[in-house]
Design brief:
mainly alpha, 4 strands
Length: 428
């Protein structure tokens, strides 16, 4: 059980690399050898660090008794549920007052949302945007610990929790067409399930597996359906995709995927598999071909670069990062295509440094999982869940640190975990 996250993660990375090599997308002058070598090195060093972390975590002793920790955690959880409730209400009415409540095609809603949007334009932030930046951690606590301590909550708090997140999903997905919240929710759900599966001797009845995998399948279908809606709203089909897209990528119409699912549904599946799960490796291969330029610790995060540029009048160092310089040289879009997480980290750390960074991540990731599993440690569960978001998005981008809401939540949880995680190891 201690090695399941490693097995799942390594399998996931290998599958996404294979899709990039043999999937329905064909890439112009794709250096597959460099990707194979780099990702193999990444997997080897990540695995070594994970194994060391498991050994270290197994030596950590419990700290306090069960009831004191749970009472404290549930008090914090209830505060976070209340705050999430008010934020969900505010977000809903903020959108309704600005745009109305007409429910449109999900793809069209997404296109309309970003129509005329300009990055780092110097515009001011609304009160809701500023509050959202710094309250992501409370929303995360509400759902992660809400699931973890679900049986400890009375019916009123359960209703409040589900209503808050239901409204957030409705506002984000149905009204604006954003699908990220679905991805986050499924990561939260599976992370908590993996920990509670054997934590404290609990076994989940096998009949519930069909509901769990049914939920995963439903979310996967929704992702595919959203892609279908988006590309339909933009007037893009499999037959004009090559013309509408950059010359770097084209679709193989004779691929087995299209023979199985046909063109209508095979096309959005191909988009999901290539644009999100594997296309980033091609962008990474292009970044390997340009020289390193240090970005002073700000190149890994677009939002962090914006903040230091706008409020401290520093140069916008993100411009010197790998992805934008790669676009200038090769034309592969920096902001609308993926490049994996590595060029973002490498802008500050070099590509070798990015692997070393992940050795540290793997080490604390495995410790957090061991503590959550053995001692029902709520702080470690939060870190484990947060790092799962980083790991799942490795083939795409630096999802955890690219936006201020997720970055602030990550830094806060990491800080609390580093200095206080041992205190939450429950003596069961």
């Amino acid at each position: 059980m201690l090695y399941k996250p490693l097995k799942y993660f390594v399998s996931y990375i290998i599958i996404t690399v294979i899709i990039s090599f043999f999937g329905p997308a064909k890439y112009y002058r794709y250096d597959k050898l460099s990707i194979a070598v780099y990702m193999l090195a990444f997997i080897v060093f990540f695995t070594i660090s994970y194994l060391l972390g498991v050994q270290y975590g197994n030596r950590i002793k419990p700290y306090k008794d069960l009831h004191n920790i749970e009472r404290k955690a549930i008090k914090i959880l209830k505060f976070c549920i209340l705050l999430t409730f008010f934020i969900s209400i505010w977000s809903f009415f903020d959108y309704a007052l600005k745009y109305g409540l007409s429910i449109r095609n999900l793809g069209q809603a997404y296109i309309d949302l970003y129509s005329g949007f300009e990055r780092n334009s110097g515009r001011g932030y609304s009160a809701l945007e500023l509050i959202t930046m710094f309250t992501g951690i409370f929303k995360q606590i509400s759902i992660v610990l809400g699931l973890f301590y679900f049986k400890k909550l009375n019916i009123q708090w359960k209703i409040l929790l589900f209503f808050s997140w239901g409204l957030l999903v409705f506002t984000s997905l149905i009204l604006t067409g954003k699908q990220k919240i679905l991805g986050d929710l499924i990561i939260y759900l599976l992370s908590v399930f993996l920990v509670t599966y054997k934590s404290n001797g609990i076994r989940i009845n096998k009949k519930y597996y069909k509901y769990i995998w049914g939920t995963v399948f439903l979310v996967g279908f929704l992702f595919i359906y959203i892609q279908k809606q988006r590309y339909s709203a933009a007037g893009i089909t499999i037959f004009n995709y090559d013309d509408k897209s950059t010359y770097h990528v084209s679709l193989n119409h004779g691929h087995t995927l299209f023979k199985i699912f046909g063109y209508e549904w095979g096309f959005p599946i191909a988009i999901l598999l290539t644009n999100y799960l594997s296309g980033g490796y091609y962008g990474l291969s292009l970044c390997f071909q340009i020289p390193f330029v240090w970005t002073y610790g700000l190149g890994h995060s677009y939002s962090l670069s914006v903040i230091f540029n706008r409020f401290l009048d520093l140069p916008f160092y993100f411009l010197d990062g790998y992805v934008l310089r790669m676009e200038q040289k090769f034309g592969w879009p920096a902001m609308s295509k993926w490049h994996t997480i590595f060029p973002y980290l490498a802008s500050d750390l070099t590509f070798i440094g990015a692997i070393i960074f992940f050795m540290y991540i793997a080490f604390i990731y495995s410790i957090a999982y061991v503590e959550a599993l053995k001692y029902r440690n709520p702080v470690s569960l939060l870190l484990f869940t947060t790092l799962n978001i980083m790991l799942v998005f490795i083939p795409a981008n630096n999802q955890l640190m690219i936006g201020p809401e997720g970055y602030f939540a990550y830094l806060t949880i990491l800080f609390v975990w580093i200095f206080f995680h041992r205190r939450y190891n429950i003596n069961k």
